[in-house]
Amino acid sequence: MDHYVVLSRKYRPKDLSDLVGQDLLAKSLRSCLDTKRVPHAFLFYGIRGVGKTTTARILAKCLSCIGPDGSTDITSSPCGICRSCMAMTNDQHMDIMEFDAASRTGVDDIREIVDASQYMPVSGRYKIFIIDEVHMLSKSAFNALLKTLEEPPGHVKFIFATTEVNKIPDTILSRCMKFQLNPVSGETLSNYLISVAKKEKINLEEGAADMISEESEGSVRDALSILEQARMLIDEFQAVTQDIIIDMIGGVRSNDIEKLLKLILDAQTRDALNKSEALIKNGAIPFMVFKELQNAMYKVITEKVERNSIAYPLSNLLYLWQILLKQTESMKDAFYPECVLNAAIIILSYTASFPDIDKLMLKETSSKNQLVQKVGEILGEKPILETISKNENKLIDTVLKKFPGANLTEIE
Ligand SMILES: [Zn+2]
């Protein structure tokens, strides 16, 4: 039986040209290697899953490759077949050492590195230390490292990777050549997924590819894992469709979300709650409902602004938008996400029943007191949920800004 290799491993970039969506980074590294202006410390930073460690390993390979005949200098395109490249591929390179600072944060761990750096490389050109999640090092560990970074032996290279560059002391930062890895754009990631799917003979629908790339937020590794999971769910000749991905990630179908939003905008609170409960029952995650509600709401607002094709007043839509954003925010620390979703639906559909805020404000804008009264009228009986009352002041401010002609002399 063939040894099965997961996609993210199988398609792990082997050299700079394999890096997905990191063209600028690849270009700078290439120029640095080709001109032989190689600093003794590199730092790769960016969000998780964008390929920092992979890039660190590729760089180590570039710095160590000796070419098929053993006479090549450092290179931006390692040969892949020399003993150094082979050792690297098999994770057996004696001179390239990887440390995970997340588990080895202490000063003793760094001393080990500092001690090892004193010795000449066993077989390679350089002794290379790759330190992942370097921001996790303790203060004393950073201090121990600093001495070596200040006066590194010529045969030593450091390659650091981190998700939190702001946690690294300036003294360390200033001694590194820094490279930022950006999240891969949706389009690039979708195209990449489609190309991998082709090679793997997976029938991946374009919409499904887009959905995977959106869900993986710029991480190639995450995207490949989702594709892999989807492949497990289908039969040989079946296609990976949007529906399969939606079910997998606990998402919601766009027509379902449009129905839910329509019920909210029509102030059909009970029906909206039933609809959202049905979505959750079918496997949707509350956060995904919020996410898609935002998408759908944004579309409604854009439509209103661009074509005015929606009867709903713009000011009310914008007000609902604010509430939606606030509720999504409160979702993050919620113990019971489903309750937050239900509460949000109640608030939104209740607020959706307000008459046109703009028109009411236009009639009487002579004093702030009247405005307060008016806003009170618009808000109707005081809602139990405090979000609305918190927004009252904001609403008044907005209205006052909107009608600068209003007589403000009566303000106490
Ligand atoms: Zn090589």
Q: Gist?
A:
With 412 residues, this protein is an alpha/beta fold. The chain is 55% helix and 8% strand. The chain has four domains: 7-180, P-loop containing nucleotide triphosphate hydrolases (Rossmann fold, 3-Layer(aba) Sandwich), CATH 3.40.50.300; 186-249, Helicase, Ruva Protein, domain 3; 252-353, Up-down Bundle (Zinc Finger, Delta Prime, domain 3), CATH 1.20.272.10; 355-412, no CATH class.
Characterization of the model:
- The chain has 412 residues and is α/β, with parallel strands linked by helices.
- It folds into four domains: 7-180, P-loop containing nucleotide triphosphate hydrolases (Rossmann fold), CATH 3.40.50; 186-249, Helicase, Ruva Protein, domain 3 (Orthogonal Bundle), CATH 1.10.8; 252-353, Zinc Finger, Delta Prime, domain 3, CATH 1.20.272; 355-412, no CATH class.
- 55% of the residues lie in helices and 8% in strands.
- It contains 19 helices and seven strands.
- It has helices at 7-10, 23-34, 52-64, 83-89, 107-117, 139-150, 170-173, 186-199, 206-215, 220-233, 242-249, 254-265, 269-281, 286-307, 314-331, 337-352, 357-363, 368-379, 386-402, and strands at residues 41-45, 96-100, 127-132, 156-162, 177-180, 203-204, 239-240.
- A five-stranded parallel β-sheet has the order 2-3-4-1-5, with helices on one face.
- Residues 380-391 and 402-412 have low confidence and may be disordered.
- The structure holds zinc ion.
- Zinc ion is lined by residues 65, 67, 78-80, 82, 84-85.
Strand/helix succession: HHEHHEHEHEHEHEHHEHHHHHHHHH
Strand content: 5-15%
- Largest sheet data: 5 strands, parallel
Q: Identify the strand order in the major beta sheet.
A: 2-3-4-1-5
What number of structural domains do the residues give? 4
The third-level CATH topology of the largest domain is Rossmann fold
By secondary-structure content and strand pairing, the structural class works out as alpha/beta
Uncertain segments: 380-391, 402-412
Shape: elongated
CATH class of the largest domain: Alpha Beta
CATH H level, superfamily name of the largest domain:
P-loop containing nucleotide triphosphate hydrolases
